[in-house]
Specification:
- The protein is an alpha+beta fold.
- It is built from 4 helices and 5 strands; from the N terminus they run βααβββαβα.
- The chain has a 5-stranded mixed β-sheet, with helices on both faces.
- The N and C termini lie far apart (53 Å).
Length: 138
């Protein structure tokens, strides 16, 4: 008998999700360097709002958010490699867009390496953001 695939739920980021987020970042060293994994993300997840994607009891994706300069900014975004290309990142962006609307903010922004940097993981990242409707701002 086959088991049903577990659906992925988008939830508000809570303290109980921290260890799952850090597990994801450890599995994505191409995107998150040692400083990000050991210092920046562990601090930021405690002070930024955001959302997680949960499959069963497991955190499989996350996005952190903060307000600056009248924009809602994406601090960090990641999806477990085993769950990539299933629409989870797009659903996390949609949750962030809804949060921006709820806050009365009309712009969702992020920073990433520009296309002058030839590095395959960030080519994928830029393609993902373009697919989600982002455009180059600066």
């Amino acid at each position: 008998m086959r088991s049903k695939p577990t659906s992925t739920q988008i939830q508000s980021l809570e303290e109980e999700h921290y260890s799952g987020i850090l597990t994801i970042t450890e599995g994505l060293p191409e995107w998150f360097d040692e400083t990000a994994r050991s210092k920046s993300i562990p601090i930021d997840i405690r002070h930024q709002e955001g959302f997680v994607a949960v499959s069963g009891q497991r955190v499989v994706g996350f996005v952190t958010l903060y307000v600056a300069e009248g924009q809602l900014h994406i601090g960090w975004l990641g999806v477990d490699k085993a769950f990539q290309r299933r629409g989870i990142g797009s659903r996390l962006i949609a949750a962030a867009e809804m949060k921006a609307r709820d806050l009365g903010i009309d712009e969702l922004a992020t920073y990433t390496l520009g296309d002058s940097v030839e590095y395959q993981p960030y080519e994928e990242t830029r393609h993902f953001y373009w697919k989600c409707g982002f455009s180059v701002y600066k």
